[in-house]
Design brief:
Order of helices and strands: HHEHHEEEEEEEE
Strand order of the largest sheet: 1-5-4-3-2
Shape: globular
Helix content: 10-25%
Distance between the termini: 76 Å
Number of strands: 9
């Protein structure tokens, strides 16, 4: 049985050890600071809602086009579709640029009557891919407004035979990828180490391609492609 004197000494030793724990054992994290709620800027400012027909993501029938022979968009003249779409969209937004870059109509004037639009035509070759999951292919194409900005477009055929635009996106197209029923748009960010990836999928309720996920991906540089000083380009 331990004496009262030994118990007192043990208690004193434990107390002394606890006092040194911060130096030799467990350490305090220190002052972590005070958590602050986000500060909202310009609370009184709100954008005006888009007017009728002014929603860029909404599906829209492209006027003045014949019913495709199909199946889907197979065999459709991609240049004719883009020309009809850009012309009608430019007229609908009255030069506001909400639906289409105002320069796109001028750029289309560079296209000739050749099958591919000629060497200066800014419309990219159409790509066919089933994005809606109905077994019929959609048409994916883009119009390059300048050396950087493009107007990405996706079209499908409705049940009534009318060609409909189901995705319109103005973007810096670092890359466009399709896999199954997904369409991913890769764009540069302000940080050259990362790239933004927007994943679009078919929305049967909206009858259009809707953004389902937005992520950041690493953006390694291509070392064998000469670029201007300070520039970087993704390897994929």
């Amino acid at each position: 049985m331990r004496s009262p004197h030994r118990l007192a000494a043990l208690a004193a030793l434990l107390a002394a050890t606890a006092g040194c724990a911060d130096a030799e054992g467990l350490r305090s994290a220190g002052d972590l600071g005070t958590a602050h709620a986000p500060q909202s800027l310009w609370k009184a400012y709100r954008p005006d809602p888009p007017g009728p027909g002014q929603q860029p993501g909404a599906a829209a029938v492209v006027p003045g086009l014949p019913e495709p022979k199909g199946p889907g968009m197979r065999g459709v003249d991609a240049l004719a579709v883009v020309r009809a779409d850009i012309t009608s969209a430019a007229a609908a937004d009255a030069g506001t640029g909400r639906l289409v870059d105002p320069r796109a109509v001028q750029r289309l004037a560079l296209c000739t009557q050749a099958v591919d639009g000629g060497p200066y035509c800014p419309v990219r070759p159409g790509v066919l891919h089933d994005l809606t999951g109905d077994g019929k292919e959609e048409l994916i194409t883009a119009l390059d407004v300048d050396g950087r900005v493009s107007e990405l477009r996706v079209y499908t055929v409705r049940g009534d035979g009318r060609i409909t635009r189901i995705l319109s996106r103005r973007a810096v197209l670092e890359g466009v990828e399709v896999a199954a029923e997904h369409l991913a748009v890769r764009e540069p960010t302000s940080n050259p180490a990362y790239i933004s990836v927007s994943d679009y999928v078919w929305d049967p309720q909206a009858r259009s391609m809707s953004l389902s996920q937005l992520t950041l991906d690493d953006c390694p540089a291509i070392s064998d492609v000469p670029l201007g000083e300070g520039r970087i380009r993704c390897a994929r």
